[in-house]
Design goal:
This protein is an alpha/beta fold. The strands form three sheets. It has a ten-stranded mixed β-sheet with strand order 9-6-5-4-3-2-1-10-11-12. Strands 7-8 form a two-stranded antiparallel ribbon. Strands 13-14 form a two-stranded antiparallel ribbon. The structure holds iron/sulfur cluster (2 copies). One iron/sulfur cluster (SF4) binds next to helix 12, helix 13 and helix 14.
Length: 442
């Protein structure tokens, strides 16, 4: 096949149970996607399963490691045999020397020793969704009966830890934990032992017509959610505020930079560093220049432009019905989706001094007007500005260290030197207006 414009490595987020999950997190945009498939059993069948694994491995020849990713809904509801078959398919279809990393994003509530042994034995990387200490986690992460889930998640994590499974934390930043960056981070690092942390802002965008239902937690019964679309310019009370998000990131950064550079990996900080190093497509897609390299695969083989655009207008095709994964990723429709992110950037962003790091954020949340009245400014712009301006100097230091072939962990010494003569009563470096000694100097 010639003239393919698809990226050599692209990411597929597969959803073997579609939107079906055993929990009912209030802010989950994905639960309503069952509306797209009325009457479906929501289980990836053998044909689609084989098409997914075989086509992904075939498409990514020449890539050092292929990531086979399962997300949801809740993928562990497929049962272990589904994942055992995944391994068989990988053995059958991998090219000689081709390495495969399997990843699963889970709420961890269904995990037991058998799951953890399996994950450990086969080197799975397990992402666990947890939003911080009990009261913050339980604010929105509830089960179908509205009951808290913290204890069940922590039990699942304990099983993973006992079996030495590689795991990372996926933590949403929302209205309930948004003022507690350091507390959340310390909980993940110290209480749970997390060394990889992904922070995802909750921006629950809704239309005026849907606001009331959304604010009520989408009604009393599961299944009452209308299909979630990226529409409207209002947000629910569960959404993080723009400034709040920026302060949250700064709060975590000030802790991380002093103590954990090189030991704990926070995807937002790694992404920022990559941008300060001049790599504008590296790290989190939301801050890449263009989109299009991360598609979402539904249980029935339908492929969508992105996990956040599982909507009829963004359906690329079905991988079990003629066109392959690579052909769909390479389609003009998907290439146009990818470049639209850059092409629709408002003039205000194009002139922004931190645009190289921000790139205007994810198009799904670009629903504000710029100060000069152009539509398309990201909802979190104020927070992005706060964060990217705050980290400019330490990012330059780290980038400089790396360019000299030195270790970025020397940033800790840079902070230690600056902190040595700091007065406990002076305002903290994070901008909180709390005395240094009672804030990041404690
Ligand atoms: S639309 Fe948003 S989430 Fe999807 S690939 Fe683009 S930046 Fe990422
Ligand atoms: S910080 Fe704001 S103005 Fe700057 S690129 Fe990002 S969204 Fe645009």
């Amino acid at each position: 096949m010639t003239n393919l414009t698809a990226p050599r490595a692209f990411h597929v987020m597969s959803k073997p149970t579609g939107a079906i999950c055993n929990l009912d997190c209030e802010y989950c945009f994905f639960l309503s996607k069952d509306e797209l498939y009325p009457g479906s059993g929501f289980r990836m069948d053998a044909e689609v399963h084989e098409a997914y694994v075989s086509q992904l491995l075939a498409a990514q020849r020449g890539v050092e490691e292929v990531v086979v990713a399962f997300q949801g809904g809740e993928p562990t509801m497929m049962g272990l045999d589904f994942f055992r078959r995944t391994l068989e398919l990988e053995v059958r279809y991998a090219a000689p020397g081709q390495r495969v990393l399997n990843t699963v994003q889970t709420n961890a509530t269904l995990l037991d020793d058998e799951w953890a042994e399996f994950f450990h034995e086969h080197g799975f990387l397990v992402g666990v969704s947890i939003d911080g200490p009990r009261e913050m986690h339980d604010a929105y992460r509830v089960d179908k009966g509205g009951k808290p889930t913290f204890d069940r998640v922590v039990r699942g994590l304990e099983v993973l830890t006992r079996h030495e499974v590689d795991w990372n934390a996926l933590t949403t930043v929302n209205a309930a934990n948004g003022d507690h960056g350091r507390e959340v981070y310390r909980f993940l690092r110290d209480d749970l032992g997390a060394s990889f942390v992904q922070l995802i802002p909750i921006v629950e965008r809704v239309t005026p017509e849907l606001l009331e239902l959304a604010e009520s937690g989408w009604g009393d019964r599961p299944g009452q959610r209308p299909l979630y679309r990226q529409e409207g310019n209002l947000v629910t009370h569960r959404s993080v505020g723009a400034e709040q998000y920026g302060r949250f990131l700064v709060d975590v950064f000030e802790e991380w930079a002093r103590h954990d550079v090189g030991d704990v990996f926070v995807s937002m900080f790694d992404t920022a560093l990559a941008h300060w190093m001049g790599m504008d497509q590296a790290g989190m897609c939301v801050h890449a220049r263009t989109c299009g390299d991360a598609v979402a695969l539904e249980h029935n083989g339908d492929l969508y432009s992105c996990d956040h655009y599982v909507e009829p207008g963004y359906l690329l095709g079905n991988i079990a019905e003629g066109r392959t994964l690579l052909q769909l990723v390479d389609s003009p429709q998907q290439r146009a989706f990818g470049s639209a992110k850059l092409e629709t950037l408002p003039a205000y962003c194009r002139g922004c001094d931190v645009r190289f790091a921000c790139n205007g954020g994810c198009p799904k949340d670009r629903f504000l007007d710029t100060p000069d009245g152009e539509r398309g400014l990201h909802y979190l712009c104020a927070g992005y500005q706060t964060f990217f301006h705050h980290v400019d100097e330490p990012m330059r230091v780290m980038a400089g260290l790396l360019r000299q072939g030195r270790d970025a962990t020397a940033l800790r010494d840079w902070y230690a030197r600056a902190d040595a003569n700091r007065d406990a009563e002076e305002a903290c470096t994070c901008g909180s207006r709390i005395p240094w000694g009672a804030c990041h100097g404690d």
